[in-house]
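Sample A.
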Amino acid sequence: MNKSNHPYHMVSISPWPLILSINIMIFLISMIKWFYFMKINLMILSSISMLLTLFQWWRDVIRESTFQGMHTSNIVKNLKMSMILFITSEIFFFISLFWTYFHSSLSPSIEIGMLWPPKNIIMFNPYDIPLLNSIILITSGITITWSHNSLINKKTNTAILTLLYTIWLSCMFTMCQYFEYKWAPFTIADSVFGSIFFLTTGFHGIHVIIGTIFLIICMFRMMSYHFSKNHHFGFEAAIWYWHFVDIVWLFVYTWLYWWSF
């Protein structure tokens, strides 16, 4: 039966969810191998396989929405709601990390010297690389808004250029975060502070990398003229996600860097 009495399209059978699930399982196993045996080869292989699977899945979604016209107004409405719910779940995830931080910092236990940061922990200077990262992310929020406004006003070349600036800034942030980790005077094994610090900033860094991939896909789609003034929810969802990453970083900087200094 090809007839339907609803405004939604029935997606064809896809192998990508199953393949992605297997890749994620292998990736998690590779993390254990990395932690215990310091071997990263399986993690690199599973990461590449996971990215290739995601690209194939995204290709199918782009084909259904852009070329086949399957995404009706009701589907776009539900996509917006699903993105809002996804970002809301991410907000609660970071709230749990901040909750752990304040639970340990507002009443430090005797095991860490009743001090926060614990005794002998040399904290990062918040006015050094962390402040630079804050400026980079705030600037990236401005450039991506500029890109969105340019797309709405049919200035495609300006939209592509400012989106490229945003991607460059996000790569700069990731590079600065890498060097900060490399030169860190403490590790994830140094008390509860080290655990919370690297867990929170690490997860934020992963979100930045995911957002960067999201923006790169949008840039290639924009260069292929997949977006128009009225139909560009993929780009809009990337903007929402990027602003979420910006706002979370402001809390990370204020509480984990500045307040702990």
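Sample B.
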Amino acid sequence: MTSSVCQGSASGVTLALFMATSGHSGVDRVVANLLTGMVRLGYRPELLRIRDHGPYLPETPELSEVSQVSLPAEHVNTALPALVRYLRSKRPDCLLTDKYKVNRIALTARWLSGTTTRLALRIGTTVSVDLASRGRLDRVFERWCFRHLYPATDAVIMPSRQAADDLERLAGWPDGRVTAVPSPIVDTERFRAIPRPDHPWFRDGSVPVIVGAGELCGRKDFETLLRAFARLRQNRPARLVILGRGGRLERLRRVAGELGVAEEVDFPGFVSRPEMYMAHASAFALTSRWEGAPVVLIEALACGTPVVSTDCPSGPREILGNGRHGPLVPMGDDAALANALRTLIDAPPDPDQLRAAARPYELEASALAYLRAMGAVSGDDA
């Protein structure tokens, strides 16, 4: 493990981020926001990507300052030689990576390259719950990596204290080995005046619209949201919009039909600005079975929109201040979720208080916390 902090002014510190994503996930927005925050603080990071993989950066003035390096590899599993060459030639002061496979490649590449680049590994989910959903060999292998590979890194970063504590217990690490850093979600410029989406249900405010967002997969448990919505519809008009794409789309359409609410539910797919829907919704609902720190929940708070979430591991309880900023309901409990939605629609909380709860996740504040965790600046530097 290297021990020195990356020294120098913002212009003198070289930063690299190595990510491989689907191109349409919450991680993509986190990466774009983190890079934007770093640029605003005076840094000029490089983004390393795998060919034909995300993250894809939107065209903004800040992100035009980010150099994008396409590693000559078709998959994360074949990216090791290219990353070794990059580290030897560029020798960045700090490298930040994300997710299990990329983290392992980075650890191996630094060792093979013989460089002293500080390495910070990010994991964005609750590891124990995630591994419980995998096969036995995967579980054994990842646990072995945490105990035998990860100790060589300089920093491990997770988006919530709950998730950090979970990994420390699983890996047998001492308290404080993992740093919890709020994700960069809220761009104050972008969230200042949010236009309405081009969707007929948001033009007329007479019928409440509930919004959910995320990958259409089992972990997000949109089936519970559909059942709760059907309960809500028994005694009041309402509509539901679920943003995102994924393999469970047809199943969710079928469930909506079986519940008799298909005409009141819409699946627009992936949208580049989900906050346009959130800001003009009557309520936002998160029904996940596990998370790390759900981006969409923070975005909804930043819009001043009433929110409800399952009390899943981990992140929602932390983000919602143990229920002060929005109700927490048991996972899979559609009755409790329906009651919480009814209360939020009938008596919405003060939107300014909700926005205030999202301030720790503003871009510049989060980027500075990342830089400190990575060792790019000392704790006293602003």
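B remarks: Confidence is low (pLDDT under 50) at residues 1-5. The chain has two domains: 10-184+362-374, 200-359.
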